[in-house]
Amino acid sequence: MFDKIMKLSGAEGRSMELKLHKGTVGPEVVDISSLYREMGVFTYDPGFVSTASCQSAITYIDGDKGELWYRGYPIEQLAERASFLDVAYLLLYGDLPQQSQLAEFERIIRYHTMINETLKNFFNGFHYDAHPMAVMVGVVGSLSAFYHDSLDIHDPRHREVSAHRMIAKMPTIAAASYKHNVGEPFIYPRNDLDYCANFMNMMFATPCEEYAPDPLAVKAVNLLFILHADHEQNASTSTVRLAGSSQANPFACIASGIASLWGPAHGGANEAVLEMLQEIGDASNIDKYIARAKDKDDPFRLMGFGHRVYKNHDPRATIIRKVCHEVLDNMDAKDSPLLELALRLEEVAMQDEYFIERKLYPNVDFYSGIIYRALGIPNSMFTVMFAIARTVGWVAHWMEMMDDPQQRIGRPRQVYTGAGKREYVPLGQR
Ligand code: CMC
């Protein structure tokens, strides 16, 4: 693994050898773990732009080529052919399941979809207009108060049961957060429906009326869930890993991931994109908003544009863009103008020097909200949809981390820029 050595020379004639770590693919990584011990210096890398925080065998991204693989499989192939639970199994266990393994996995997930009846009381503690992501953070965090029988993080079987529970219960909790918001009774999961259809049913059925999920809508949700399932060490996954590194319980770790995902620079962007498109309103206003995005004195950014890693294109956005047309052509076409506006905005931005120079392309969130809206899912639920899908990635990373013999508590260092040492001044003398 460490087949190369790099020599580092520091102040006062000090030097040390740094090992170069080579993954399966991707750039070499300098191992600086003994840097402070040997050289007495830290590294400084705000936002972890050049820093690998762990080893992982789950997801690979080549940002320059615009490639994304789950366990080696290109996202395009999975998006076209797999079911979400097929992908969930792949991310969790490392290989695509055999038919019998998938059937058993689906059965296990199906039989964990109900939530404890008393958990419903937590929803009622929230005001009706609470943002569903606020409800998600609270309710998912509270799961650790219910499922004591799977909380021994040192027991691999407990870890697996917790993982299954989270993947299974997330759609139930998500749909309940929506139902609470609109003041409708919660709908129980149905065992005759698959993962995505069951979620749609819990969202849109009422006790008064049967709901038959539209197969095209279910297919679109399946696809979006696959595209959002994992993205290696993004902010929320890193948050889950950091929380887990202190040996916190898995439900608490996933709740921390949900909190991190909510930010508009991360998963909250899909909601922000729709709000932005609605605010722009008409193609005649695009130039004004592009000018605002370029103005350094204006905090406005083109939401759904740019990515820390992708500097060519976001492969997920390419897939979603295509599906947008399919969904809008076949369903209620009321949101076509929004898609037209998005396409025009993309066209204008992609011809603008500012965006070209900085390699700012539409990301996964630029088009996902347009599809969700066409399916009748309200803006405030977009990031919740992201959270349901990403739970699989969070859980896979948490499981991988818990199995990693090199795992230690995450504890970054800092460059201290505060006051030098000074004497306490009693209140009367200040
Ligand atoms: N609109 C206008 N300017 C932008 C944008 C944007 N959306 N994104 C980046 N820039 C500019 C930024 O001002 C900076 O310019 P300069 O070099 O002149 O200072 C340059 O591009 C580099 O930006 P950065 O903020 O240093 O890049 P980053 O890697 O730290 O941030 C990002 C990545 C995704 C947070 C950022 O591009 C952004 O805020 N985008 C909008 C929010 C968004 O769509 N987020 C969803 C990300 S994809 C889903 C997910 O995985 O979470």
Helix-strand blueprint:
Layout: E1 2-9, E2 15-21, E3 29-30, H1 35-39, E4 59-62, E5 67-70, E6 73-74, H2 75-81, H3 84-93, H4 99-110, H5 120-124, H6 132-142, H7 156-182, H8 195-204, H9 215-228, H10 235-245, H11 250-261, H12 269-280, H13 286-294, H14 315-330, H15 336-350, H16 353-357, H17 364-374, H18 382-403
Antiparallel strand pairs: 1-2, 2-3, 4-5, 5-6
Helix pairs in contact: 2-9, 3-18, 6-7, 6-11, 7-8, 7-18, 9-14, 9-17, 9-18, 10-11, 10-18, 11-18, 12-17, 14-17
The chain binds carboxymethyl coenzyme *A.
Question: How would you portray this structure in words?
Answer:
There is one protein chain. The protein has 430 residues and is mostly helical. The protein contains 18 helices and 6 strands. The longest helix is centred in the middle third of the chain and has 27 residues, at 156-182. The termini are far apart. The model has no long low-confidence stretch (mean pLDDT 94). Bound molecules: carboxymethyl coenzyme *A. Carboxymethyl coenzyme *A is lined by residues 47, 231, 234, 265-267, 269, 293, 301-308, 358, 360, 363-365. Carboxymethyl coenzyme *A (CMC) binds at residues 47, 231, 234, 265-267, 269, 293, 301-308, 358, 360, 363-365.
Question: Quick summary of this structure?
Answer:
By secondary structure, the chain is mainly alpha-helical. Helix content is 50%, strand content 6%. The protein has helices spanning 35-39, 75-81, 84-93, 99-110, 120-124, 132-142, 156-182, 195-204, 215-228, 235-245, 250-261, 269-280, 286-294, 315-330, 336-350, 353-357, 364-374, 382-403, and strands at residues 2-9, 15-21, 29-30, 59-62, 67-70, 73-74.
